[in-house]
Amino acid sequence: MPEADIDHLYDYPAGYLAEILSSVKTIAMVGASGDKTKFSYGVLRVLHETGYEMIPINPNPKLTEIRGIKVYPTLADVDRSIDMVEVFRPSEELHSFAEQAIAVGAKVLWGQIGVYDDRAAKLAEDAGLKVVMNRCPKIELFRPFWKPRLDLTI
């Protein structure tokens, strides 16, 4: 059932994000990098250290593992169930990864910061997936602990 009341461009209800991050166990990261200076590497590291089973996806045949975790060339090559597909690729590719996420039976399609496509969201939601775009799960994981200090002077 599509999440018709979700506004993917502006804001997500905290409960929506919290439910996703507390329910998923396996995260396939499309566009994962073995380069420690890349943002995707840092996100993979933090999510892995937080307890998620990470599944790096990268078609480079020379990249066989990241942080000791086997790298798969495509989502279709993964040999276990995938709860969430996180996409670190250009927005133009999100629709294709939505199709692939549906094909592998994922429950969530998550577009990293800067990754946004309404068509991909509609396709995934119509297939029963929850969708998050233009957000970072690493940031969202720690957001509930942020306590703004409104009393500070500027």
Structure description:
The protein is α/β, with parallel strands linked by helices and 154 residues long. It has one domain: NAD(P)-binding Rossmann-like Domain (Rossmann fold), CATH 3.40.50.720. The chain has helices spanning 14-23, 39-50, 94-103, 118-126, 137-142; strands at 26-30, 53-57, 65-66, 69-70, 84-87, 108-111, 130-132. The protein has a five-stranded parallel beta sheet, sandwiched between helices. It has a two-stranded antiparallel sheet with strand order 3-4. Helix 4 links the parallel strand 6 (108-111) and strand 7. The mean pLDDT is 90.
What's this entry about, in short?
It contains 5 helices and 7 strands, in the order αβαββββαβαβα. With 154 residues, it is α/β, with parallel strands linked by helices. A 5-stranded parallel beta sheet has the order 2-1-5-6-7, sandwiched between helices.
List strands and helices in order, with pairings:
Layout: H1 14-23, E1 26-30, H2 39-50, E2 53-57, E3 65-66, E4 69-70, E5 84-87, H3 94-103, E6 108-111, H4 118-126, E7 130-132, H5 137-142
Parallel strand pairs: 1-2, 1-5, 5-6, 6-7
Antiparallel strand pairs: 3-4
Helix pairs in contact: 3-4
